[in-house]
Amino acid sequence: MNNQQYEFGMVGLGVMGRNLMLNIADHDFSVIGLDLDPLKAEAVEEEAGKDKPVRGTISTEEFVKSIRKPRAIMLLVPAGKAVDGAIATLLPLLEPGDIVIDGGNSYFPDTERRVEELASKGVHFFGMGVSGGEQGARFGPSMMPGGNREAYERLRPIFEAIAAKVDGEPCVEYLGSGSAGNYVKMVHNGIEYGIMQLIAETYDLLKRGVGLSDDELQAVFQDWNQTEVQSFLIEITGEILAKVDDETGERLVTMISDRARSKGTGKWTSQNAMDLQVPVPTIDMAVLMRDMSKYKEDRVEAANALPNAGLSAPIEMEKQALIDQLRSAFYFAMISTYAQGLAQLTVASKEYNYGLQLQDVAKIWRGGCIIRAACLADIRQAYTEKPQLANLLLDASIGEDLMDRQQDMRAIVKLAIDKGIPMPAYMASLAYFDAFRTETLPTNLIQAQRDYFGAHTYERTDKLGTFHTVWS
Ligand code: 6PG
């Protein structure tokens, strides 16, 4: 048995676990990995090379004994039963003060339960969202840890070393108590769904609506990545659109089935937003459109039965001017999506007592993660100036910028309507803005209707109290 005391332990040596281990070792922290598969345990040692303090083992006992106390052990196993299984195996060997970190996309109520279960043994449980995929894990992810504040100090030096850096600042910060880390990652993924849907709608309008060629489409996204919409998702879209299929010579994206899959984090974001009564319509639409994509046979039938004559409607505007207008509208929609997700975090933080600081959330989303984007610098600035900002749209400079762009947004939505191209995420992003800045919504009428048919009562604008009217 090896007598070395390792700084950190990793359970699960799949793609994410292995790459994070190598990243940790690159920063001169010793790390031991546990996997039931001996080939994986060997592979990580080989990949690290002899000079790096990396060990792989299949023995849970050796693994736990070899980690410096209080132990820091991260689980990178599939969310769900595998996490509970790994905890059950480790727990009898752990001691009070040890820390277990779940780095998967776990459902936040599961994290709350695990925090309580492990606390009864004096063990700290952290739910930590890790974003950035394989490359991020290897060279710098964005990490969203939540759990016990004092216990985090044992983890801080390692996490700050391995995280992505933006202007020298690490994309990791202690976010809050309980399931705060998983919750923030869930909303990160909801925003990810929203922006991906916005980009897909943009592509559809440019391709079917404006008739751009494959080369032109690729150039648009590559150009955009040098502008205010600069972001990881725009960048990879430019690369995706450039990729040629070896078999057919066509762009690979055109050969890919349009049925979208999902693992559930976007749906959880929408579901929980409804529970908290926070509107996140762009995220909802993104989830809905993945659902709509599944009905392929029905859509094929409907495409024949209900042909879209609007597609041939002429466009008056010059092509480049239209592309610029679309970019401005995309930026508007992207900011609206961030505003919705951040508003959800504001409400959730109060509801679940997370103690989130949204300037920290914006800070760690600037690099490493899937939704990293140039605009997060401005978003961080807004929450740094006003940590209690109720909604991003109320920041003076962001609000002014959206006011300047709103005509572009309206023009694009009108074009989508004329062309019959489904752009629900754009429309929802605009409707969110319009609803949020409407002083009196027509929901007074809804209250009257509720009172009419169900005697549900209503409140008045001119005096306090609850009222009921016999309407007919
Ligand atoms: C990330 C991603 C990551 C994963 C998504 C995919 O931040 O690195 O969000 O967590 O790729 O879970 O989600 P869907 O399968 O639901 O699209």
Could you say which overall geometry the principal axes of the C-alpha atoms support? Answer: globular
CATH classification class of the largest domain: Mainly Alpha
CATH superfamily of the largest domain: N-(1-d-carboxylethyl)-l-norvaline Dehydrogenase, domain 2
- Average predicted local confidence, pLDDT: 97
Give me the Rg, rounded.
25 Å
Number of spatially distinct domains: 3
Q: How can the largest sheet be summarized?
A: 7 strands, mixed
Q: Strands of the biggest beta sheet: in what spatial order?
A: 3-2-1-4-5-6-7
Plain-language structure description:
- The strands form two sheets. Strands 3-2-1-4-5-6-7 form a seven-stranded mixed beta sheet, with helices on both faces. Strands 8-9 form a two-stranded antiparallel sheet.
- It folds into three domains: 8-178, NAD(P)-binding Rossmann-like Domain (Rossmann fold, 3-Layer(aba) Sandwich), CATH 3.40.50; 185-436, N-(1-d-carboxylethyl)-l-norvaline Dehydrogenase, domain 2 (Orthogonal Bundle), CATH 1.10.1040; 440-472, Single alpha-helices involved in coiled-coils or other helix-helix interfaces (Up-down Bundle), CATH 1.20.5.320.
- The termini are far apart.
- The mean pLDDT is 97.
- Helix 15 runs antiparallel to helix 16.
- It has helices at residues 15-26, 38-48, 60-65, 81-90, 108-119, 133-139, 149-162, 180-209, 214-224, 232-242, 265-276, 281-293, 296-305, 319-351, 358-364, 376-385, 396-419, 424-436, 443-454; strands spanning 8-11, 31-34, 54-57, 72-75, 99-102, 124-131, 142-146, 165-166, 169-170.
- With 472 residues, it is an alpha/beta fold.
- 6-phosphogluconic acid binds at residues 105, 131-133, 189, 192, 262-263, 265-266, 369-370.
